[in-house]
Amino acid sequence: MNAIDQIKASVLDYWDSFLQHVPKLILGLIILVLAIMISRWLSSLFQNRLSKRLDDQLLSLFLTKILRMALIVLSVLLAFNVMGFTGIAAGLLAGAGVGALVIGFAFQDIGANFIAGVILAFNRPFSIGDTIEIAGVMGKVLSLNLRTTHVKTFDGKDVFIPNNTIVKEELVNYTKDGFIRLSFIVGIDYEDSVEKAVETIIAATLEHKQVLQYEGKKPMVIIKDLGVSTVNLEVRFWVETFDYKDGTGAIRSHVIASVLKNLTSSGVGLPADIVELKYYKGEGFPIKLTNAPNKESKT
User: Fold this and answer.
1) What is the pLDDT of residues 159-170, one digit of tens each?
2) Fewest CB within a 10 Å sphere: which of 2, 108, 120, 299?
3) Where is the Mechanosensitive ion channel MscS C-terminal domain (predicted)?
4) pTM value?
């Protein structure tokens, strides 16, 4: 038998072997598709049950993703066994330890982010919908994934922060307890009464129903410092932060506008800063006064 006949015989043997395995391949693919569909159904069922019991959307979503990945891996291994690839499935399981070690060195950041995601799922400083600020990013939390946390900034950017960064970096949560204190500075004339200005400012602040008046969270005004031309008063007030993006900034703007209006109408002066000019030449300071032309006069 020459080389060509040997090649033909080998091809025919492989073809016959392939035809014998076609039913198993088809059955394995059917089992794989059904197993994936069932895994999705089980994941959805698990998420619904877990959400009702835990009352924690973020944790239930994270655990559901882990369960779905585990079910998909088991589905693939089951399909390999049905197709006759038992050796491949056994090899995957046997090499899982070595593979985990190799992958651990190759993808240290991914592993660290995954572990950080597990930590955040059970012990985290925020929930879905909270407004947070971390690593220079401020926005609303949309989801916690296996590797990253999805944050939507107030200017419309979608930022995916590595979970490992959230665990390590300092994080500010503006909506954890639903309250935040806002403040701004207003400068009044030295000749005006501080008591009158404080009463006017408090009254202007209380015109807004969004400003809280609970015990310990009532508006207050303190003397911040003495400026060059003004007595600087700091206005402090508390608001709810469930809608931080649209609510907090708008409330602060409205309160400032009301304070400005009420102080002006009550006769409290709001002088500008004084600029001091020094002239060190001993010849006197040259000043030239020019009357502005009268536009109504006829030339």
Assistant:
1) 999 888 888 888
2) 299
3) 183-268
4) 0.56
